[in-house]
Amino acid sequence: MPKRHLKILLASPRGFCAGVDRAIQIVELALERHGAPIYVRHEIVHNRFVVEELAAKGAIFVDELDEVPDGANPVVFSAHGVPKAVPDEASRRELDYIDATCPLVSKVHLEAKGYHAAGRQIILVGHAGHPEVVGTMGQLPDGAIILVENAEQAELVSPRDPNHLAYLTQTTLSVDEAETIVGVLRRRFPRLAGPHKKDICYATTNRQEAVKVIAERCDLILVIGAPNSSNSVRLVEVARSAGCPRTALLQRAADLDWSLLDGVGTVGLTAGASAPEYLVVETLSALGQAFHVVVEEIEVTRESVRFNVPRALSA
């Protein structure tokens, strides 16, 4: 029986961003320089295949520093950032550490400290419990930052002084949703200060824009990424709101529900910022075995951002 034709629109940019690439390099270089094991607090990035690959090379992933033995090789902090108490605890225990926090997350930390020093209470737009949000809120004393997750909460938030407020955002939010929430805050608090440049990172923005471009042309969009990856989950939401209600998140090709392809003529394919490209290639291969595929890459921009690893590892 001849294969049915299937058009695949491959979104670009997709997959690894500079912050993820840097974090993975840090773990690999630490293993080369210090040998195994290298302890890593939390998943270095939100992708279990990346974590498993690094674990096979000698990385040990832990939830908290109390799982790291005294005298261990340097501990690596994940790309999402950590509360101030974590490096403080590492220093107290005389543990060497390497901070793999994405520079764009570090930028948000610096902004938070600056607003706090200026006497402003901060409203952080983000998702409760996400490691990046925990890390950002943990830069300052309790009460210095109020978390707002949606427009409804933005309507109800009650700061100490409406005239001395600033807002920041998690770097991996839906751009459109964040703008809606910030719009509510600006309406309620006209003197609200904010960052000169948006906190949502370039990679999150670019991947969402690419999905918006292909959404109305697709009968189905597949997003490769982890369920605990904020930017991957946001890609699903953006695709649906941009015109493709049939959108699915899958970790790899083996997870694909083939019934989703019933009656589908055009599939969009993208990947979250912590998903390696080989998972995209694997999915293309699986689709190519089942269908006669024609692939068209839709590039909305080219990314040239690179972040250097810490000097101690590059010397």
Describe what this molecule looks like in 3D:
By secondary structure, the chain is an alpha/beta fold. The N and C termini lie far apart (59 Å). Helix 5 links the parallel strand 6 and strand 7. The chain folds into three domains: 5-16 and 202-299, Cobalt-precorrin-4 Transmethylase, domain 1 (3-Layer(aba) Sandwich), CATH 3.40.1010; 18-102, Rossmann fold (3-Layer(aba) Sandwich), CATH 3.40.50.11270; 103-200, Cobalt-precorrin-4 Transmethylase, domain 1. 38% of the residues lie in helices and 19% in strands. The chain has helices at residues 18-34, 48-57, 85-92, 103-117, 131-137, 151-156, 175-188, 202-215, 230-241, 277-290, 311-314, and strands spanning 5-12, 38-41, 59-62, 75-77, 97-99, 121-125, 145-148, 165-169, 220-224, 247-250, 266-271, 292-299. The protein is flat and about 70 Å long. Helix 8 packs parallel to helix 9 (230-241). Strands 10-9-11-1-12 form a five-stranded parallel β-sheet, sandwiched between helices. A four-stranded parallel β-sheet has the order 3-2-4-5. Strands 7-6-8 form a three-stranded parallel β-sheet, with helices on both faces.
Task: Indicate the mean pLDDT.
Answer: 97
The CATH architecture assignment of the largest domain turns out to be 3-Layer(aba) Sandwich
| Largest sheet composition | 5 strands, parallel
Order of helices and strands: EHEHEEHEHEHEHEHHEHEEHEH
Number of helices: 11
Number of strands: 12
First-last Cα distance: 59 Å
Approximately what portion of the residues adopt beta-strand conformation?
15-25%
Number of folding domains? 3
